[in-house]
Specification:
The protein is an alpha/beta fold. It contains 6 helices and 6 strands, in the order H-H-E-E-E-E-H-H-E-H-E-H. Strands 1, 2, 3, 4, 5 and 6 form a 6-stranded mixed beta sheet that branches. Strand 3 and strand 4 form a beta hairpin. Helix 3 packs parallel to helix 5. The chain is elongated and about 70 Å long.
């Protein structure tokens, strides 16, 4: 392909036929495509017993790209970051939901994302886990926003499916909200700066394993929010 033809295609290609909003939305061109993909996966794909919630980078070297960020710990640290959830059973690695982290470039006119009133991390967990692992019956919904969801996957509520995640998603409120609808979370526990995550008795755990051999395991139970 010649460079001229490539540039002609780039000038003509579009990912939405929605009209521009009255306000500035730097993500307008890709919102419809992302939402359509998520809706399709929501209807057509049923994840296995275990999924992985994590963050993914889309490499982009132009720092003026909307939502651009630098995440030094990532293999490709520059670009757009997505929250993503993928099937984790038997090497399937099928991603079935994504959400672009818009950051300060998200238009204020759109308001906060659904469930962010519970905290941004909990909101992410609820949007990309509970939405898929829930009945359509309104009397089972946790909060009012659930009642207005239009397209949900086939009922797999209370099947005991598991979502594994790294320490960045370890928020007790999110884990307990998942548990209430029969979806179970497992996450790496580690200190954040000098302190342990809220409701994690880290010092007690340290003391318990202080003189134990490497590889020793144990179980500690506690109750948070009635769970």
């Amino acid at each position: 392909m010649s460079r001229t033809r490539f540039e002609d295609i780039m000038q003509a290609i579009r990912y939405t036929d929605d009209e521009l909003p009255a306000f500035v939305d730097r993500f307008h061109e890709i919102r419809k495509m992302q939402n359509a993909w998520n809706d399709y996966m929501e209807e057509e794909y049923s994840p296995s017993w275990i999924s992985c919630l994590d963050e993914s980078m889309i490499e982009w070297l132009n720092k003026y790209c909307p939502g651009w960020m630098c995440v030094p710990r990532k293999p490709h640290p520059f670009g757009n970051e997505y929250h993503s959830i993928a099937d984790a059973d038997e090497g399937a690695a099928i991603m079935w939901q994504v959400e672009l982290r818009e950051g300060k470039d998200r238009p204020q006119q759109l308001g906060p994302k659904e469930y962010d009133n519970k905290g941004k991390t909990v909101g992410t967990m609820m949007r990309y886990v509970l939405i898929h692992f829930h009945f359509k019956k309104k009397n089972l919904l946790l909060t009012k926003p659930f009642a207005i969801l239009k397209r949900l996957m086939k009922p797999i509520h209370n099947t005991g499916k598991v979502v594994t995640m790294d320490s960045g998603f370890l928020v007790a409120k999110g884990i307990t909200e998942m548990h209430k609808v029969g979806v179970y979370g497992q996450a790496l526990i580690k200190k954040r700066g000098r302190g342990w995550p809220k409701f994690v008795p880290g010092e007690e755990i340290d003391e318990h394993f202080r003189d134990q051999a490497v590889g020793t395991t144990g179980t500690l139970t506690t109750e948070v929010d009635g769970v």
